[in-house]
């Protein structure tokens, strides 16, 4: 269920991958910016293109040094995720912070795509659907360009090769942006429909292909990663649930 | 810096997520909501009506129903510790498949922990066996081609057990996905006891769907203990699909102990053979075909020994020679009697030459008391073509004492080897019973 992270990232990556500048999670030199709607601090940082104001809920987009108000996104639905904005963890030893969330809905329900910023300035996504979690990282679209079928021709159960990973198509769907919080690396406009395909690899890999708004091309953005356990990546803090003891934070995170 | 923002920041979801209790919109029955915000469907335990939460979490009636509540093996709301994690039963689904006109029902319990997601605990009503599992973190690789269908996942091979059409017959509780009575899926089951992989394909209104689920056997008693369920678990019958083979579970130890015992056996054999002081008691060459008597002394008095007696008749050509041998103890008036036959047959049948028999035969006796004996040999001989004994027949005899008695070596070895063989056969028998319930019954 990972996908629909927006074609904005395609542009971001095509600008010259790997083009993401190695910026720290918190940039002390960043110019202070404020919400054009309510005047509250709007802490754009790192790869942030859009930000949802935590005071008034407006979506603000940064273009160069200018801030532009997109309007209010529909509120995020409480879909019971244990992850919260600002949670931290480690993936393969690299610390990350949950910097944003995109909530996506389709005919079978909603799921969350959590935007992760890593300590080395790279980004990733933590897909959170039906109690299953996976972390994926964007890869160069050139590794799949023209080598995978268009979204409309992808068949469930088909075996595809994505770079050196052989994987089975387990899900394909068109899903709509429902809401967002925190920062996102692209301009998130609610209601837009995005096409995504999920694959599971023979060696436990998790792959998703993000076709963006059109299903009729062979240039999706590939995302590669694997299923994870929230406690194994040392995610902390996590949300409290009535009647359940919050697990103690685990040191170290995933091996 | 802005003076004061208009509202306090709406930090989302920092407050505790709450459970809830509502009344069914159809029958008014009390419904406990324990699945928090992830729930897509709620089936009233009492009437089966389907409810769907809207964005605010308020339930809307989706489909009214009037079915009776069924008594499942475990109840909604029960909690239990499995694999060091606490789980709560939030949903129950009954499914069934049909094979050869027989319906096989099972119950699936959806286990939930807000930090670990979901697990399935499955109770097979037809044989009482339990399995537990979750979505497979990856995809099994299918092997096409000849031979038994199989899949591989993380270097482990799973053999195809059966393919069934599974239909939902009953639903109660909460689910993070849509589930309806009547939902149909084709389930392919691959086993590598105690684990299995289920590949389910469903065609829904939303399109095709494939799910990989990894399951493993869990004893009913462990389920009962985990959930502190009253009484005892339903009795099991037969061999479960993925219940571990008890005869194979210890096979590693069986073979290890076999290797150990076989090593001891080799050692014991070595010492036994080395300790033998084999001596020729009597050796005669070229005896005529006539009774023969001789006093001999075997071993030493008061000790038992093993003797062998070799009898050879030359020449034998389509003929036989038989020796009736008596060893009469001169001290104890006891005798040992035995016969030994040498023979040689040959001919041509169907264009092929054949040859049978051996003109030299040896017999071995253990437990012979040492002492003086009178050896009496009464030989006879005959031949195929003419009456009477063959001409010029000469007999060679030899008797030795303290020889190696082969059965002292063979019998222990067979006993040592017997255990792995027995375990192997019992294991194979168990697998046979398991597979007799599969799509391959009769062929495996």
Keywords:
heterodimer; A: 255 residues; mainly beta; eight-stranded antiparallel β-barrel; 1 helix; B: 444 residues; eight-stranded antiparallel beta barrel; 4 helices; 48% strand; elongated; disordered N terminus
Word description of this protein:
Chain A has 255 residues and is mainly β. Chain A contains 1 helix and 14 strands. Chain A has an 8-stranded antiparallel barrel with strand order 5-6-7-8-13-12-11-10. The longest helix of chain A has 7 residues, at 8-14. In chain A, 48% of the residues are buried. Chain B has helices at residues 220-226, 246-249, 251-275, 406-435, and strands at residues 20-23, 30-33, 41-43, 50-53, 59-63, 79-82, 85-99, 102-113, 117-124, 130-135, 141-143, 150-153, 156-175, 184-192, 195-204, 207-218, 279-287, 292-298, 304-314, 319-329, 335-349, 352-356, 360-369, 371-383, 394-401. In chain B, a hairpin with a 2-residue loop joins strand 21 and strand 22. Classes of the chains: A mainly beta (255), B mainly beta (444). At the A-B interface, strand 10 and strand 11 of A face strand 16 of B.
- Average pLDDT confidence of chain B is 88
Total beta strands of chain B? 25
Biggest sheet statistics of chain A: 8 strands, antiparallel, barrel
What is the CA-atom radius of gyration of chain A, in angstroms? 18 Å
Oligomer: heterodimer
Q: Give the class of chain B from helix and strand content and strand pairing.
A: mainly beta
Structural class of chain A: mainly beta
Helix fraction of chain B, binned, reads: 10-25%
Using the CA coordinates, give the radius of gyration of chain B: 40 Å
Stretches with pLDDT under 50, minimum 5 residues of chain B: 1-5
Proportion of residues in helical segments of chain A = under 10%
Largest interface: A-B, 60 and 57 residues
Tally of individual helices of chain B: 4
Indicate the overall shape of chain B: elongated
* SSE order of chain B: EEEEEEEEEEEEEEEEHHHEEEEEEEEEH
**Spans of at least 5 consecutive residues with low confidence of chain A:** 6-28
Cα-to-Cα separation, first versus last residue of chain B: 79 Å
Separation of the first and last Cα atoms of chain A: 24 Å
């Amino acid at each position: 269920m990972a996908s629909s992270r927006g074609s904005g990232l395609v542009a971001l990556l095509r600008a010259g991958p790997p083009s993401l500048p190695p910026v720290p999670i918190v940039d002390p030199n960043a110019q202070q910016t404020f919400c054009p709607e309510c005047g509250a601090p709007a802490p754009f940082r790192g790869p942030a293109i859009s930000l949802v104001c935590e005071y008034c809920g407006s979506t603000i987009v940064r273009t160069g040094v200018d801030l532009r108000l997109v309007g209010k996104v529909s509120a995020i639905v409480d879909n019971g995720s244990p992850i919260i904005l600002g949670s931290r963890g480690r993936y393969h030893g690299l610390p990350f912070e949950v910097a944003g969330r995109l909530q996506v809905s389709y005919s079978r329900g909603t799921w969350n795509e959590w935007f992760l910023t890593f300590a080395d300035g790279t980004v990733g996504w933590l897909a959170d659907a039906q109690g299953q979690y996976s972390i994926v990282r964007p890869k160069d679209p050139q590794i799949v360009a023209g080598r995978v079928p268009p979204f409309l021709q992808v068949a469930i159960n088909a075996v595809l090769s994505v770079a050196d990973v052989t994987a089975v198509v387990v899900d394909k769907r068109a899903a709509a942006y429902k809401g967002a919080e925190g920062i996102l690396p692209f301009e998130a406009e609610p209601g837009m429909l995005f096409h995504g395909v999920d694959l599971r690899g023979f060696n436990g890999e998790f792959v998703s292909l993000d076709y963006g708004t059109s299903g009729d091309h062979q240039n999706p953005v590939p995302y590669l990663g694997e299923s994870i356990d929230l406690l194994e990546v040392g995610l902390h803090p996590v949300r409290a649930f009535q009647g359940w003891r919050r697990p103690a934070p685990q040191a170290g995170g995933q091996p | 810096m802005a003076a004061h923002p208009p509202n306090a920041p709406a930090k989302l979801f920092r407050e505790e997520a709450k459970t809830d209790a509502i009344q069914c919109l159809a029958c008014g029955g009390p419904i406990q909501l324990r699945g928090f915000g992830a729930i897509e469907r709620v089936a009233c335990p009492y009437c089966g009506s389907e409810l769907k939460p809207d964005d605010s979490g308020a339930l809307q009636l989706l489909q009214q129903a009037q079915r009776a509540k069924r008594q499942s093996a475990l109840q909604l709301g029960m909690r239990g510790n499995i694999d060091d994690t606490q789980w709560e039963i939030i949903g129950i689904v009954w499914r069934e498949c049909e094979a050869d006109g027989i319906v096989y029902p099972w119950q699936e319990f959806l286990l939930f922990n807000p930090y670990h997601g979901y697990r399935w605990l499955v109770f097979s009503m037809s044989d009482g066996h339990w399995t537990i599992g979750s979505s497979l973190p990856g995809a099994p690789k299918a092997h096409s081609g000849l031979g038994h269908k199989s899949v591989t996942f993380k270097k482990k091979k799973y053999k195809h057990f059966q393919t069934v059409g599974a239909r939902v017959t009953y639903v109660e509780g909460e689910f993070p996905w849509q589930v309806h009575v009547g939902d149909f899926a084709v389930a392919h089951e691959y086993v590598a006891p105690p684990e299995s992989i289920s590949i389910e394909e469903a065609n829904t209104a939303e399109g095709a769907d494939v799910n990989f689920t990894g399951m493993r056997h869990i004893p009913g008693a462990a389920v009962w203990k985990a959930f502190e369920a009253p009484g005892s678990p339903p009795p099991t019958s037969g061999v479960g699909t993925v219940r571990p083979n008890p005869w194979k579970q210890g096979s590693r130890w069986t073979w290890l102990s076999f290797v150990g015992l076989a090593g001891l056996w080799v050692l014991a054999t070595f010492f036994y053979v080395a300790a033998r002081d084999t001596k020729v008691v009597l050796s005669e060459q070229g005896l005529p075909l006539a009774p023969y008597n001789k006093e001999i002394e075997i071993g030493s008095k008061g000790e038992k020994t093993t003797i062998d007696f070799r009898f050879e008749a030359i020449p034998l050509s389509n003929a036989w020679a038989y020796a009736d041998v008596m060893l009469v103890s001169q001290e104890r008036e006891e005798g040992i009697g035995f016969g030994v036959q040498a023979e040689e047959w040959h001919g041509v049948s169907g264009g092929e030459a054949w040859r049978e028999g051996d003109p030299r035969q040896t017999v071995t006796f253990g437990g012979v008391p040492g002492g003086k004996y009178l050896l009496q040999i009464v030989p006879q001989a005959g031949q195929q073509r003419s009456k009477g004994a063959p001409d010029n027949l000469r007999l060679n005899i030899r008797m030795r004492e303290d020889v190696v008695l082969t059965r002292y070596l063979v019998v222990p070895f067979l006993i040592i080897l017997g255990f792995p063989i027995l375990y192997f056969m019992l294991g194979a028998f168990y697998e046979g019973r398991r597979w007799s319930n599969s799509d391959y019954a009769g062929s495996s």
